[in-house]
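re: that complex we talked abt at group meeting.

here r the seqs, copy pasted straight from the sheet so there may be weird spacing, ignore it
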Amino acid sequence: MSQTQVLSFKDFATDQEVRWCPGCGDYSILKAVQRALADTGASAENTVFVSGIGCSSRLPYYVETYGFHTIHGRAPAVATGVKLANPELDVWLVTGDGDGLSIGGNHLLHVLRRNVNMNILLFNNEIYGLTKGQYSPTSREGTRSPTSPDGSFDNPVIPGSFALGAGASFIARGIDIDQKGLPLLLADAQAHQGTAFIEILQNCIVYNKDVFDDVVAKKQAKETQVQVVHGQPLIYGKDEDKGLRLNTQTLALESVTLGNGITEADLLVHDETNPIIAALLVALAPPMPTAMGIIHRVEKPVFDQAYWEHKPTQRSAKVRDLLRTGNMLDRRNEVSPR
Ligand SMILES: Cc1ncc(C[n+]2csc(CCOP(=O)(O)OP(=O)(O)O)c2C)c(N)n1
Ligand code: SF4
Ligand SMILES: [Mg+2]
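got the structure back, here u go
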């Protein structure tokens, strides 16, 4: 495909047999990804998807771009290498709650704090799908699974809080089946300079069916979600009659109903650059509304840019030449730095 050709979302589909269970939320995410690639004018040859291991991590096979299906939890290392080797590439990292937050938690931490310019899609289904339904670090307390037959008693991690703690410069949350909102969110992530972290609530219909129904079910979504928009007061509810107010005594968000002396002016206004607001929003959970959209976005130094500023001579280095520079493990001729 030529670089100048305008591609439609169908051009980003591959001929590979899709191995996800019928009805899995991953299909919708794949579609949203393909849409976002078309909408942002992505070129197949300049785009790379890098994943770890899990059902979610099969996504690179199904997107007509370059891709690496790597090893469990280590996609951040490979994706960082890809971006450093060729900063012109658009890098997308696909991971699951197990891949990214169990075995890969350490690697995820470092890619986020470094702010490498890439997009990270964390498919959160609160379970290990591929290995047949063991509970994961995001599984809510009481989750029954082969590894927690009496119900889990772990304290689950909130992916967005983890990302915020690691210093992420872009944190968003979306829903697998939201074919209108999710591609827009992915496009915003793509436009961001630095690591864009998006948690996508994903329905594993086999091992954790409808686990997010209390948040995503359409019939009540306006009551159970708050769409956060920079500069706008935090309003929600089917009649837009509810909002979130900061309790200055407890420093927590509380839900209030507008009227009876409470007006929009009492509500907290979303400021995506404020990490304190991000910390409050990202941790909201039922019975409070769950925050959706761009929760945090700031400009920070980008690791790959700094890397090339500090290592300009490496730009033209070829792997082949580096390998022929001699035995890199043989350090006998080195002068001791003492
Ligand atoms: C080193 C290593 N340890 C364990 C496994 C087994 N394993 C494969 S995928 C997976 C968890 C996947 O869960 P998640 O990342 O949530 O992906 P999902 O299948 O839910 O999309 C595990 C434990 C492995 N492949 N390699
Ligand atoms: S096991 Fe779950 S996450 Fe994996 S393909 Fe099936 S429905 Fe999807
Ligand atoms: Mg999972």
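couple things i noticed - Residues 235-269 form one domain. The chain has a mean pLDDT of 94.
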